[in-house]
């Protein structure tokens, strides 16, 4: 499969028109496209243009209600519960994290739990919102069940990512990872390449470890059983119960505190996904001098990067460094978008009556183009 | 190596006298022994009687200062920083979590970061303190460096456990795990059994994966390099960067917010370990009706337990179930203490001028007994 690179400006312009055509205000459109394009700039391709089809189909099917506005249903000076009323995940989440930030600036901490939302893009975007304000930011979400609990054979938790961002120099700490060993996107990549899955990733419908990507993916789509292992695999010896536990932590802050839909039931309704999120912002000033804390943390990160490397390795990364490098590269050299995704964008244009060619001049759609349906 | 079982009352009586002899008040002694014996009751043997030698040697060497009192050096209604002044970790941590609980009851949340403490026992004990009050409790600690960051060959983070406890029926959710794939205690177990280490656990001094338990342990003791892999192993394909990230999260709440000693420097001083902790208590009442939240969570836990099992498995655990079962068994049938530990307890009695035989009547010390020094 080929890909083509587009400038940030091209994609930004395109996304702006898309979300306007969906009926979002200019401000709303700006938020949604910033979440998507940040993923692409960071090199998290699965959550940028490639994910547009999910929002398109969600709005078309009626599980995403573009006109819904988030509602604060419970609030204290340090906390809030928000009902997203099945609106666009990015807008609900931006609203929720702004509230957490506001509380953290006033009281030192803000914890916001959200129910009835939709896929919100990368969790790290919202952790970053707090980080940009000098705060420790955390974000998590549940999702359609894909993680099989230790000793199980049915997916009961989502990929349940947890993101953490904290100010530091020369760049912040930025950690954004699923609590499964990998995401479904990785399985799909191996499937497209026709390669067997690495050990320790996936389970077949009987709960046995499997390297068979097409079989595992087909079972996931048909909800026949199996799925992805927690971080730590499917045995206690490799720490399966730990990844499963971090997935539960995510569930606590998203679906439990908000009284929302747990992952085992997410995406089983005709008119909503029920996806839930959790957000936290913590003000370092509630613990002393924020500048001193920032310097202390930066020194530790530097010590980690400078520590001795394993034979054959020339670099130890601190979390967020790869994103900094990817952003620099993609701003200079463009954002790669693969042909499958381009076909999906063409379909989206046709749905919204936008002129695909006017955004992506000179691009020729593959002759045998079919929409890749596995992901929605 | 053999072991012998003692009743809870026998060990409780023994520990009471030990901590009294060290100069702790009765109340202080009660806290310390409750932390230790809870570990033994929960089946976390590495942190019960087996760990007594570490406190003994710490006090003897002067890295634990029994008379030190924790001091609140910074405080807001939702947060505090505590300097432990190198006192007993359990006392400092009990004090810190009580403060977090008090804040959570008043404001909805309490976050307490602690510097200059010592080994505090099981993290889960403190998470449980909050849980017993109907709150969501979290606790973490850094420690002497043992986790090698992804692509490194020198340990730069501790085993950095994160514990979470949350009220539920018929028993609470209780998660307490290191962010390394396993703890050093597991390596020592394999070493004693003369068995090769499982793949994905440990690194030799050059940063290569190693199954050689004696070599890895000798390098750790001599600080020659190598150590234990993060949860997720030493490759990105298995999620190494994720375990490393959770270790960093732990560091943030313990050593960073408190301006304390990061794991890479812990236990490198003659007069202190510098170990840091983080505690959080969150009041579900800050998010709605605590009873409804508890019921909602209990139902999800039940759904997890009842979900289909993998071929060959007859049970899916939710976190904390194994501890409930172990506690029942040990209260009925006694707490196993191995012969090595018994020798260490005899040494402790001799140091404190206590009569070993009066506590452990009829027990015969192994004839070739030598103190196992690897762990301190």
TrEMBL record, chains A, B:
It holds the Pfam family Ldh_2. The keyword Oxidoreductase applies. The keyword Oxidoreductase applies. GO terms for molecular function: oxidoreductase activity. Keywords: Oxidoreductase. Belongs to the LDH2/MDH2 oxidoreductase family. PANTHER family: MALATE DEHYDROGENASE, OXIDOREDUCTASE-RELATED. This is Ldh family oxidoreductase. The lineage of its organism: Bacteria, Bacillati, Bacillota, Clostridia, Lachnospirales.
